[in-house]
Design goal:
two-stranded parallel ribbon, globular, 5 strands
Length: 107
């Protein structure tokens, strides 16, 4: 189920990038936020957070930079080099993590 949802998000991102449609008030965009949520959190949590993020993406909210929070870590890399790390995880005070994408990832 998770792989199907991620594939649909990938198709959505590629299609709307080609036609140049839409803009998002947040960084990362709402579709990128949803992809990060579905990759790293449970399906119910990912649906909830993605849905609330999409509802906040309008003129009534300021927007800005908002990365998803992780409930728990799923895996730990064996070899730690900058090229092998896909996301940086930054802890907050409530024992959860902010996720930051590594643009130099070669995977």
């Amino acid at each position: 189920m998770r792989k199907l949802l991620l594939k649909l998000l990938w198709l959505y991102q590629k299609f709307f990038t080609l036609i140049g449609f839409g803009s998002c008030r947040y960084y990362p965009t709402c579709s990128e936020y949803a992809r990060l949520e579905f990759e790293n959190n449970s399906l119910s949590s990912a649906f909830y957070h993605s849905f609330t993020r999409i509802l906040r993406c309008n003129q009534l909210f300021d927007g800005g930079i908002e990365y998803p929070l992780l409930d728990k870590l799923r895996c730990r890399p064996v070899k730690l080099r900058v090229e092998t790390i896909k996301y940086w995880l930054v802890p907050d005070k409530t024992n959860r993590y902010y996720i930051i994408k590594n643009f130099s990832y070669k995977g």
